[in-house]
Fold this protein.
Amino acid sequence: MDNFKKAIRPKEEDFEDFSCHLTQLKTYRIHQYNGFFFERNDNEVLLDKNIIICSIRSAMENHKSIFNSTKNLQPLSSDEDGLFIYIPRNTTLDTPLQILNVIKTFEPLKIEAKTLIIVGENSHLKLIYCDDTVNDNLSKTESKISVVLEKDSSLEYYKMENINNLSSIFTDSNFVLDTNCELKTFWLSINGGDIKNKLSVALDGQYARADLNGLYMVDRDQVVDNQVSVSHNQPNCHSNQLYKGILDDSAKAQFKGHIYVSQNAPYTEAIQNNRNILLTDKAVVNTQPFLEIYNDDVKCAHGATIGQLDQGAMFYMRSRGISERSAKMLLMFAFCTEILSKASIEELVDTLQDIIKRRLHGELSSCENCVLLCSTPCGTSDVDFI
Amino acid sequence: MSLLEIKNLHASINGKEILKGVDLTINKGEVHAIMGPNGNGKSTLASIIAGRDTFDVTQGEILYEGKNLFELSVEQRAAEGIFLGFQYPVEIPGVSIANFMKTAINEQRKYKGLDPMPSMEFMKLMEKQKKIVDLDTKLASRSVNEGFSGGEKKKNEIFQMAMLHPRLSILDETDSGLDIDALRVVASGVNALRSPEVSTILITHYQRLLDYIVPDFVHVLFEGKIVRTGPRELALELEEKGYEWLR
Ligand SMILES: Nc1ncnc2c1ncn2[C@@H]1O[C@H](COP(=O)(O)OP(=O)(O)O)[C@@H](O)[C@H]1O
Ligand SMILES: [Mg+2]
């Protein structure tokens, strides 16, 4: 059934300046259309700071020195291109960068997107990467991203997946952290027919820290699969995985969490948690921790839970006059938003909470395609909870 | 008409009979103490009144203001004025007390056909009722009961009672585990809310609570039945003699 057409580069004039659900949020926006990047070097702040945002091919030609001096770059095949972002050393961007990949098609479409990001020594970046379908047609997106964090740098990375029920998205993400780097990820699978996220983090320098948070909300026949892998290759690194999911109807989820601790990595601390709430008997979760530890001086912990909403808490809330439906909402909302507790962009957290709330109200499908394009709340919720 | 009438109530869990014919009538404005040794069905009785469905009622009835209580859902009972102070208050991580109370008040108001309480009014009410039980001022943003000490949890129950001003409060061992100061605070909270319109059931082990909240009646629930009813002095007698002589 592979009658997918491969996406071709849209004409510049077809490109629309899509609005987005994060409109209230000030970001430096980088547009992609069906995985193709549109170069617009017009932002003075970014130019001033010598931040490079261009195609990978042009970076290979025009910024050879960066390419040659950065380890861990995978070569491009001859017909590939993608988005290149380079943050020079000692640069702090207070406003987040946002990559907005808009997926729009009228026939089954296969999309490939590739992104390469280098955060220079002692630089600090916040990045929001959204994949959104804007109509109801079938698409298949394969998205690869490689991120290199040089010494003493940090990245706070938000990935938002909100695609229609027919569409699939497979992401393959690799992060390499040098000494004393800090990575925080917030992976939000908000909607999609078939979502698979492969996330690999290599802690290649001492004192590197990775805090990996994920949330998946699936219903109907949706499928979501998260494969998270952290390699502790140097001493004194910390990693934390917290993935949470709510499954309704006959949705399926899989979580595979891999922690690898090399022989060279004493004083490692690695934690992994996967928590799931099943709202029906038909929903299925498969959770598999996989710990590979070759060093004795290690603190490792992992846990997984699959359960229903806490009945004791439900009764307690209802005994105060809260309806069963609202009590469920409050519990689910609290469960989901825990993963945002370490997110630092306050306005973004507010918006994400709103999206989560709407998703829980089952309003996504009633909003034509997605919540993301409707700027006015389409809520039917009768209770206004915070 | 009595506020609450329990007639020949039998209840069991997993086929084991816990309540074996309870009769109890509560009128408006009265304070009743229910005492009795552990495991004799006091919390079961309280939970059934509040609407917990883990117990099977096999016989008997409960009338609340003359109406069949079993026809009301848990939340409808709350909106009709029934409040249960839990023996073991539940922790709800991630749900702030402010949010919890606001939702509760507004859903109760909705049931009564009223508009939501304006935010300012709600904030003022929180401030006022917190003082009754001397609760931490940062309370509003904390998650419900999460990380609370035993005493704070019990105070939080009384605080919620004050926020919701019920007509029938059932306080299930609200005094257990409290030191004398906390006990005084809880008791003065209950007394502050006492009125001819409000009835209270105090479930307790210790007669010391009754030094602070003086009941109109004391009942002994023993092996699933109320075996003795008397005035406040009955509590003193129980403290002296224990329960075995009732057998
Ligand atoms: N959820 C339950 N499952 C099984 N047995 C229970 C449950 N709750 C209470 N019981 C039993 O019911 C009896 C009465 O308990 P309870 O009402 O809590 O007593 P009290 O409050 O008087 O100490 C006890 O024997 C207790 O073990
Ligand atoms: Mg009890």
